[in-house]
Amino acid sequence: MIVVRALLFDTFGTVVDWRGGLISRLEEWGKSRGIDTDWPMLVDGWRMAYPPSMQRVRTGEREWAVLDVLQRESLLSLATALGIKELDDAAADEMVRMWHELPPWPDSVAGLHRLRTRYVIAPLSNGHVALLVRMAKAAGLPWDAIFGADVFRHYKPDAETYLGATALLGCQPHEVMLVASHPSDLDAAAKCGLRTCFVSRPLEYGAGRVVEAIPEAGRFDLMVDGLDELATSLGC
Predict the structure, then answer these.
(1) CATH 3.40.50.1000: does it fit domain 6-17+103-233?
(2) Angstrom distances, CA of residue 77 to CA of 27, 81, 119
(3) Does the keyword Phosphoprotein apply (predicted)?
(4) C-alpha to C-alpha distance for 53 and 51, rounded to whole angstroms
(5) Helix (H/G/I), strand (E/B), else coil: 198
């Protein structure tokens, strides 16, 4: 039986639907402003620009910056490539803030409420605290604490994030489980001594699109199809 005291959650893709949420918001937003473009292409490109932008911070190529700043830089570059000429500073800021109000997956809120009855639960995200607080309010996510990258001034998969959150919770690494839909995130957490749970989110990048291969059985401590299933597996 797995015994842990706290659960940390990757957020974008694991708890909230970034792709579906952004496409829906941007289509409505663009229509109201007379801006017409391939919004799914923009969203997919935006997400693919996300890891390289953080990597430049992680390697010291650029100074520390919170995710909003990195997302804004990526957005402006994509908008130019897609020929969106109507994107002034105010419009860019509005689009970046859409990452603060993404919809939860259907099982997320109920599953988190169940898990919270037995465990301390908190996001461990590359988003910053202000973003995650707004997201929790908008989506109804019942966190006990919030750990954004700005708390540690490091982005995952730097060990400082996993070990920093564990220490702030007063736990040893083996007393904490990372819950994520991204095997690379879980592998990094496991190297730091955390327990791991893979959550399958087959629609994260769009139907039929796979960015990270589904992990083989036994690679992580648990493998589930949603947070409700995780709650059941952990006896909540």
Answers:
(1) yes
(2) 19, 6, 42
(3) no
(4) 5
(5) strand
